[in-house]
Amino acid sequence: MDDKLKILITDDSKLLRKKLRVELETMGCEVIEAENGKEAVMMVLQEKPDGVFLDIVMPEVGGIEALQVLHEVNPEIPVIMLSSAGTPQKLMETLKLGALDFIQKPYTTVQVKKALEEIRKKAAQNE
Amino acid sequence: MNSFYFAQYLLNEGKVSVDELRELIPKSVDAEVSEKLIALWQGKVTAEDIASVGNGNDSEFSRVAVDKELMTAEEAFALKKTVPGESERFAQVLIDSGKMDILGLAPLIEKYHSLDESPVKTVVQKIADDSIGFELPSYIDFVEIFLRSFMRFMETPAAVSCEKPIFGDVSGTHVVTQKLTGDISMVTGLFVSEELFIEMARHYSHEDITEMDELAVDSLQEFMNVINGLFAVDMAKQQRDIDLETPRIVSNTLPAGNNTLSLEIISGLGSFVLMTATDEIGVREGHDF
Questions:
Q1: Which residue, among B183, B206, B246, B288, would best test binding to A if mutated, counting the most A CBs under 10 Å from its CB?
Q2: ipTM of the complex
Q3: Which structural domains are found in chain A, ordered by start?
Q4: CA dihedral B273, B274, B279, B283 (to 10 degrees)
Q5: pTM of the model
């Protein structure tokens, strides 16, 4: 694995993508973006990112549905869920579906850094 | 009682009018709060203590108060380090504008600190009419979270007007709404002029937004999404599960919905209408942005 992680941000919010891209690039990542779950699945197949940040509430294909499909096409890919509604129920639901972690919006830099470390560890294990 | 709602309390009690609130809330954004007011707010000194010290400037107040053993030197030093909240800044603006003096404010501050009920709950209950029944507790919870989060994310003070909002010409206005489903079925929305929409988007995103573009729309939709998410987290503590749909925006539309609660929010950025309803907030004569 290259030291520079390739991360896919999936969120319908342009603002969120812009802010998170800055955070991740500052942390040394290469960043690619998708606006919805359908695009995310395509990007995972084509670009083979090391990890995914995936919003839950998105139009058309939402994050939960996308998470299931992502794990069908790549069972090992580390996925960090993003949601404004970080309830315990949502947390359990996404962890059961194989998400690595869950970040409540508005996120902090510390949360992103921690998630990135988890992705790095998981990606290293998958090698 | 937390440090957010002193202006709301004074409005509820009729100590300031809605017009005064409109004038003073924006001024309170940059108010520099005196050490004697902070000392009074924190309960370090009483109104009698302040009267006994006299009308000197801040450094003189602290020095004399320490000399008279009304405060310790450590307490006086801590005052200088205190970052005042919205409530203290509003109290200072009342003094600066000559509407009240510090001795007149003292009993009001004391009463505010001993309130059992949030001033936000009080004003929402006052404005809600009979058409709103079992939904009211959820609406109150939402408005409390909204107001607190608005102040936090927009970095500006705000209060709920005690008068019902009047919807005038809807041209050049936008409504951002989001539907909540699950154990609570509710729609929340903001009815905002375009000028204020851009200002709010700029404050929330910290981006240089100057026109009604995609980033402006995205910013306020994300703002609503985050606030409704915080509401969902709060409701989860009451064992109520809520899902959020994606936010939407319509323009030039008179908002309407069933069991609608409309509140005018007076903020440091300007005034807008916050709405909650049990179904979709209207899309009549408007267009999707």
A1: B246
A2: 0.88
A3: 6-126 (3.40.50.2300)
A4: 30
A5: 0.90
